[in-house]
Amino acid sequence: TAITAAAAFVATPTFAGSKTRTGSLSGRKGYNVSGDVTVTKSGGKTVVSLGENYVFDPNKNPPDIKIGFGGGESYAKGSKIHDRLTVKKGAAEFEVPAGIDTDKYDELYIYCEKFTVILAVAPLN
């Protein structure tokens, strides 16, 4: 048992640089959006995860849906993490481009880039 515990302790430093922030989405502008989100930094990569409970309003289909970051319910230009969000329900993961420092932001957004409208916000803890 002591050897197993020691081996587990030695493996721990590989996770030393990891950081996880979580939040829950709530809709804006009449959109019903909900679900948990996680932003995880580990091994030099940052990943945004939508939880199994994620649901985007099934009655609406705005064009050009994106995920990005910001604060004070204001989207930060240049924080878009992918070309188009097509997932409307369930778990999904998206790698954040290396040039985006997610630590600078305290909110994650689902938004319509074409009309610059925030559709859902998740404050990050």
Describe the structure.
Strands 1, 2, 3, 4, 5, 6, 7, 8 and 9 form a nine-stranded antiparallel β-sheet that branches. A hairpin with a 5-residue loop joins β1 (19-27) and β2. With 125 residues, the chain is mainly beta. It contains one helix and nine strands; from the N terminus they run αβββββββββ. 22% of the residues are buried. The longest helix is centred in the first third of the chain and has 10 residues, at 2-11. It has one helix spanning 2-11; strands spanning 19-27, 33-42, 45-50, 55-56, 65-71, 74-75, 92-95, 107-112, 117-123.
Share in β-strands: 35-45%
What fraction, in percent, of the residue positions are helical? under 10%
Rg value: 17 Å
Can you summarize the main beta sheet? 9 strands, antiparallel
Distance between the termini: 36 Å
Derived structural class: mainly beta
Overall geometry comes to: globular
Task: Itemize the secondary structure elements and their pairings.
Elements: H1 2-11, E1 19-27, E2 33-42, E3 45-50, E4 55-56, E5 65-71, E6 74-75, E7 92-95, E8 107-112, E9 117-123
Antiparallel strand pairs: 1-2, 1-9, 2-3, 2-4, 3-7, 5-6, 5-8, 8-9
Short synopsis of the structure:
The chain is mainly beta.
